[in-house]
Amino acid sequence: MATISVPDVDVLRSAKVDLAAAFRAAALHGFNEGVDNHFSLAVPGRDDLFLLNRYGPHWSELRASDILTIDLEGNVIDGEGEWELTAFMIHRGVHQSRPSARCVLHTHMPYTTAVALTTGGFDTRISQNAMYFHGHTAHLEYDGLADGASEGRRIGNAVRGDATVAMMENHGVLVIGESVADAWHKLYFLERACQVQVLAQSTGQNLIRVSEEVATKTAAQWAREAANASVLFDAEKRRLDRENPGYAD
């Protein structure tokens, strides 16, 4: 693990503000589940520290000051409050196994979780949004609450390579991004893709699937679109500024 300098105070604050905004945006879209679930972000310039929400606040009220800075041993380096056990184990496992996973979002958002409960799972060949994730989706069998280091490592190992989404069977989902904006972009379009899959399946009619070639081509096109992920995230922050300000406090 490389030893890299501590980030500038302003850089760290900006990272916390973005992560807090992601929580509030998730609440606006109904992606949250009470005070549970969790988002993390590797501290800029460091592979041995990450930001994690403290346990307790509802996502709709979460602020930058509610974001903890934690080391890989679980020590709170900065911030007040306590982390939740499964949150620490899952996010440490992913950040350790895949340092390129800078931002890790875990939710039980309804449509994606519903799809994760089915034997057919997420079909990345039935909608344009779903093709975003074609060839980049991992699957993880359920093995109880992630309350131990071994389970954290198992989850981390499942997302090595090119996976940007891990469908956690009987549980929820993990979304991985290079930044908060990138991860949010994926989280948003994943839930939309799963929503239309559930609606299409509910008709009882046969689903139209594109070819492997078309799905692969569309995934590559989506990768280029994702380079502009900050446009969507900035729009979400402007909506928060209108409807639920205060996340930067």
Structural class of the helix and strand makeup?
alpha+beta
CATH superfamily: Class II aldolase/adducin N-terminal domain
Which consecutive residue ranges, at least 5 long each, have pLDDT under 50?
none
Rg, nearest Å: 17 Å
Keywords:
alpha+beta; 8 helices; 8 strands; 43% helix
Task: Please explain how this structure is put together.
The chain has an eight-stranded mixed β-sheet, with helices on both faces. It is 43% helix and 15% strand. The mean pLDDT is 93. It is globular, with a radius of gyration of 17 Å. It has one domain (9-235): 3-Layer(aba) Sandwich (L-fuculose-1-phosphate Aldolase), CATH 3.40.225.10. The protein has helices at residues 9-28, 85-97, 110-116, 128-131, 149-158, 180-202, 212-225, 229-243; strands at residues 38-42, 49-53, 67-71, 76-78, 103-107, 137-140, 165-168, 172-177. It starts with 8 loop residues before the first helix and ends in a 6-residue tail after the last helix. The chain contains eight helices and eight strands. The chain has 249 residues and is of the alpha+beta class.
Topology record:
Elements: H1 9-28, E1 38-42, E2 49-53, E3 67-71, E4 76-78, H2 85-97, E5 103-107, H3 110-116, H4 128-131, E6 137-140, H5 149-158, E7 165-168, E8 172-177, H6 180-202, H7 212-225, H8 229-243
Parallel strand pairs: 6-7
Antiparallel strand pairs: 1-2, 1-5, 2-3, 3-4, 5-8, 7-8
Summarize the structure.
This protein is of the alpha+beta class.
